[in-house]
Task: structure prediction
Amino acid sequence: GGGRKRTVYNDSTLCSDLESLIEPETAGDPESPLRWTCKSVRNLAQELKNMGHNTSHRMVAELLHEMEYSLQANRKILEGDSHPDRDEQFEFIHQKVTDFQSRSQPVISVDTKKKELVGDFRNNGSELHPKGNPEKVRVHDFMIPSLGKVAPYGVYDQTQNSGWVNIGTDHDTAAFAVESIRRWWNIMGNEVHPKAHQLLITADGGGSNGSRIRLWKTELQKFSNETNLEVSVCHFPPGTSKWNKIEHRLFSYISQNWRGKPLVSHEVIINLIASTTTRKGLTVKCQLDTNKYPKGIKISDKYLRRVNISRNEFHGDWNYTIMPYRSTDKL
Result:
């Protein structure tokens, strides 16, 4: 029991004042500079000194450890305000998927993966290399004009557990999204679903395949006419894109497969995507799409009315079916 008593024993409010400074909503003086600065142990110690405490940054670090505080990064959890019909839409999508699969009709999940710079740029993640010999990449992420960016648009077949990725080199538009679905159907879908007369697409509510995008619907009409498929679409409610099957059944595994590997060329990107597999048997095919997809195409009301669309009674803006024309008067 010998020796000098710790400061915390002589200063009864030290711990409570320290904890008040690191609460999510800082208690005390709203004008405190700590409210708007990094809460490092040195800044915390200085603020405690300003409050009349005799302490140091080492003591603050020790106290924080004893109070079971640690450095925490941000975590993507919150999705904003949920739509009042969110749960009902999830249930509607589930029933729709179950119905299509029970009748051996194809169900696909679609979305555009994050755009990627092509070149010797840093790619998140680590890869095994000889010690002290990491792969060298550029310091700054400035686009290389001759290589540009790519927009990988994915199609995930929920029944077959297979994926298709169309690597676009131009704009991510609705025309590009539907062309990606068209290529999936012609190269993969038609072969594994030879008796299909319907197709169900589950998609996010925004982006190139958004529920309000007119070009998305007119391009789907063209696709429906070409394939003679009735194309049903179910959009996820706002703020729920992470529930889209393609995110955690396809895109997440692609990201794992190319982690730490610079995407130095289109060929490398295609090979990395096409080699993505899982223990549950995921297979992926990939193709480069160098077509031009201009932005800003306007669809008039008159042209939109020619879309042969049937909207569901429950949220017809999210759930609808586009049917092929039965006559020669096609869109």
